[in-house]
Design a protein that fits this description.
The longest helix has 23 residues. The protein is of the alpha/beta class. 50% of the residues lie in helices and 20% in strands. It is built from 17 helices and 14 strands. The strands form 2 sheets. It has an 8-stranded mixed beta barrel, surrounded by 6 helices. α5 links the parallel β4 and β5.
C-alpha cells in the first residue's frame, strides 16, 4: 500500500494547501491503517516528526518554497511502504512501514535525512533538520500516542542539539550497538561465524535416536560462543530470524543427506522456528523452495514452534500451520506448559507432537504445581493422540517418572551436549 492508493480520492479538507501532503486528519487515519497492517504482519512502524529550518528563515514566500522543495525531495526519497504528511505545527510527519527492528528504523531515518540535506536547493543552503522517532508497538499502539511521542522525541533532539532522537531512551542509548550487532550478524552468515550443532532426541524405551534437532551457535570473535537461546533472541530483536532460520535449515538438510545416504532412514529432522519466522508467510515459501531439492521427504521434517507465538497470533497461526501441514511437514510445539491456555493449541491446530517445557521437567519431581501440570498435560495429550517429548532431561529418575506417564521421547543433559554433524553420523552408525 502506498500513500496515493491508501488515501483514496483527494478531498481538499484532508490535504495541506502549500505542500499537497495529507494534513493531520488524514495523516492520523493513514497511520492507524499502517498500524493495523503492522499488527497483522508482526512488523514495526516508525513515525518521524521532522522540523526543517532553512539557515535564514524569512518571508512567507521563501517559507512556501522551502516547504515545497522539501516535499518534493521527501516524495522522491520515501519507499513504497512509507508516507508523509504535515502536522498542525507545520512539521513533516513521515511514517515508515514494514520494518523489522529499531535498527531498520535508524537506517531509513538516517538515509532520509542525509538525502534531504543533499537534495535541498542551494538557495536554502543546507537545512537544519531536527527529528523525533516513535515506534509501534514499543512507544504506542495508536496514531495519537505515536504522534505525541514522536513530537516529544523531536523536542528532546532540539534540546540536545542532535539530528534526531528515539522516544525510547533505551533504544536511543543502544541503537549504535544494535546496528553494529545487526551488521555483524548479517556478515556472520557468510563468513562462517554461524555454526550448526545437533542434539539427538532419544526414544524413551530402548534409548535409540529417533530425531535430531538442529541448533545454531554464533562463534563471535570477541564475545566467544553465543548460545542458541541468546542468538535466537538477538535475531528476533534485530529482525533477522528468517535469515538465521534459513541458514540452520540449509545446513541441517546437508547434514541429513550425509547421515542417510546409504540407508532408507526414518530419522526425523527437527528445526526450531522462532516466532517472527513462524508467522511470516515468506518462511513458508522458503521452506517449500528448500524442500524441492532436499534429501528428505516433507514428513521427515518437523518444525518446532514456540507456544507463545501460536497463542498470541491465533489467526495468522492457523493460516501458516495449515500451509505447513498441507506440505506434509510435522509440527511440534516447543516450551509446552510454559504459557497460558496451552491445551487450546492441541485442540485447535494441526500439531503432531508437543515438547514439555524444560522447567516443568526439571521441577516435576520436587514441585507440586509443576508435577500436576505435567501429569495433566500428559493425560490430555494421550487422549488426543499426541506424542510427547521431554526437554532438558537430567536424571534417570526423571526419565522413569516421565516414561510411566507415557512420554515417548526425550532430549537433554542426560544424553550429552549438542554435537557436530560428524558426531551425529557416528552415533547413528553405532545404533546409539
Amino acid at each position: 500500500m502506498n500513500q496515493s492508493t491508501a488515501a483514496g480520492p483527494r478531498h481538499p479538507a484532508l490535504y495541506d494547501a502549500t505542500t499537497g501532503l495529507p494534513n493531520i486528519l488524514l495523516t492520523r487515519e493513514l497511520l492507524n491503517r499502517w498500524i493495523s497492517l503492522a499488527q497483522r504482519s508482526d512488523r514495526i512502524v516508525a513515525v518521524l516528526d521532522l522540523k526543517v529550518l532553512a539557515v535564514e528563515e524569512g518571508e512567507s514566500r521563501t517559507e512556501q518554497r522551502k516547504f515545497q522543495a522539501v516535499t518534493a525531495a521527501l516524495q522522491s526519497i520515501i519507499r513504497h511502504s512509507d508516507f508523509s504528511g504535515i502536522s498542525e505545527q507545520g512539521t513533516f510527519i513521515v511514517t515508515f512501514g514494514n520494518l523489522f527492528s529499531p535498527g531498520d528504523a535508524n537506517r531509513v531515518v538516517t538515509r532520509l535525512m542525509r538525502e534531504l540535506r543533499r537534495r535541498t536547493p542551494l538557495e536554502f543552503d543546507e537545512p537544519i533538520l531536527t527529528g523525533g522517532i516513535s515506534l509501534y508497538p514499543a512507544d504506542g499502539t495508536d496514531a495519537d500516542s505515536l504522534l505525541l511521542n514522536a513530537r516529544s522525541a523531536r523536542d528532546a533532539a532540539a534540546r540536545k542539539g542532535t539530528g534526531f532522537e528515539f522516544y525510547s531512551q533505551r533504544i536511543s542509548q543502544n541503537i549504535v550497538q544494535y546496528t553494529i550487532l545487526e551488521d555483524r550478524l548479517l556478515q556472520a552468515v557468510s563468513t562462517g561465524e554461524l555454526v550448526a550443532r545437533y542434539r539427538p532426541h532419544y526414544r524413551m524405551e530402548g534409548k535409540q535416536i529417533e530425531s535430531v534437532e538442529a541448533l545454531v551457535y554464533w562463534q563471535h570473535p570477541e564475545l566467544g560462543m553465543i548460545s542458541p537461546g541468546a542468538l535466537v533472541g538477538l535475531a528476533e530483536d534485530l529482525g533477522l530470524s528468517i535469515r538465521v532460520g534459513t541458514f540452520v535449515l540449509e545446513q541441517a538438510l546437508l547434514a541429513y543427506g550425509k547421515w542417510t545416504r546409504n540407508s532408507d532412514s526414518s530419522l526425523e529432522l527437527l528445526i526450531y522456528t522462532p516466532a517472527p519466522s513462524f508467522i511470516d508467510q515468506r518462511f513458508v515459501s522458503i521452506v517449500t523452495s528448500v524442500l524441492d531439492n532436499a534429501p528428505l521427504a516433507p514428513e521427515r521434517l518437523s518444525l518446532g514452534l514456540p507456544e507463545s507465538s501460536i497463542l498470541q497470533n491465533p489467526e495468522k497461526s492457523s493460516t501458516v500451520l495449515a500451509a505447513f501441514a498441507e506440505l506434509g511437514i510435522k509440527l511440534s510445539v516447543f516450551g509446552f506448559g510454559a504459557g497460558h491456555a496451552s491445551l487450546t493449541a492441541l485442540i485447535l491446530y494441526p500439531l503432531h507432537r508437543l515438547t514439555l517445557d524444560s522447567t516443568l521437567v526439571r521441577n516435576g519431581l520436587s514441585d507440586t504445581r509443576a508435577r500436576l501440570l505435567v501429569e495433566t498435560t500428559m493425560a490430555a495429550a494421550k487422549k488426543l493422540g499426541k506424542p510427547v517429548t521431554a526437554s532438558g532431561l537430567q536424571t534417570e529418575e526423571q526419565a522413569a517418572w516421565l516414561r510411566s506417564l507415557g512420554c515417548s521421547r526425550a532430549q537433554g543433559p542426560l544424553f550429552g551436549s549438542p554435537v557436530t554433524a560428524e558426531e551425529i553420523g557416528e552415533l547413528l552408525n553405532t545404533g546409539r
